[in-house]
Amino acid sequence: MTLLYIEDDKDIQEIYLDFIKTYVQTLHLANDGEEGYEAYLLYKPDIILLDINMPKLDGLSLAKKIREYDKKVKIIITTAYAEQENLLQAIELYLVKYILKPINFDELKNALEKAIEESREENLELKEEIFSLDVDTLWYKDSEKLYTNNSEIRLTKNERRLLTLFSTDEDKVFTFFEIFNHIAYDDYEKEYDANQVRALVKLLRKKVPKEAILNVYGEGYRFNPLKKL
Q1: Where are the domains of the chain?
Q2: 110-151 pLDDT, tens digit each
């Protein structure tokens, strides 16, 4: 289990770190909403523990933004205020728990155990799509992780999106516009630029086997794994 803890009060965050570490294998930290969103995209945690009242992007807005395309990650929200409007919004975000501050350790324990149990049950139900790119390199499509010789290769947000797109259809040649549209779907002001697609593919090719991504002249690019496991 991987948990992302987003809390702008570092003193409060520090109080609960050791306790949380007893329940998860990996713990990542962020100190405001925007930083938290970037950390979510980078680490794709199983569980997110976040505060409502944060600078730059509040907790409910952050949770809503994540829920737009991720229904699986388990979210636990903490707040110093039991406001009716916040409670109603929280219900719509399918939270594991809504915890009032000061956080009670028993209540946090129950929330973490519930989140872990739900996450494990869902993971057992899902069959991960795995592609062997060569004898040493594996791409886990659903969890968006790339491994070479059992070591994870860190991918940027756009590299993950690109590799995920390619692996949705091994036989399809994706055009430059299709790729750009997929990569920039959440950046409405970004203008189409084929050179950005070429640059991104070039960067990704440095991390995957040479033949894993084929250039189809005059059309675009196609995924070319060794085999699907």
Answers
A1: 2-125, 130-228
A2: 999 999 998 888 776 656 788 999 988 999 998 899 999 878
Tokens 């675009």, residue located: 220
User: DSSP secondary structure string, 4-58?
Assistant: EEE-S-HHHHHHHHHHHHTT-SEEEEESSHHHHHHHHHHH--SEEEEESS-SSS-
Dist. CA 37–CA 66, nearest whole Å: 8
With contact defined as beta carbons under 8 Å apart, do 166 and 159 qualify? no
Look at the domain 130-228 and name its fold. Answer: Arc Repressor Mutant, subunit A (1.10.10)
**Rounded Cα distance, 165 and 179, in Å:** 8
Q: How far apart are the first and last CA of the chain?
A: 24
pLDDT digits (tens, 9 = 90+) for 94-106: 788 888 888 999 9
What is the domain class of 2-125 according to CATH? alpha beta
DSSP run (H or E) holding 115 = helix 105-125
CA dihedral 132, 133, 138, 144 (to 10 degrees): -110
What pTM, to 2 d.p., does this model score? 0.56
Q: pLDDT tens digits, residue range 34-88?
A: 999 999 988 889 999 999 889 898 888 999 888 887 888 999 998 887 665 566 5
Phi, psi dihedral angles at 152 (to 5 degrees) = -70, 135
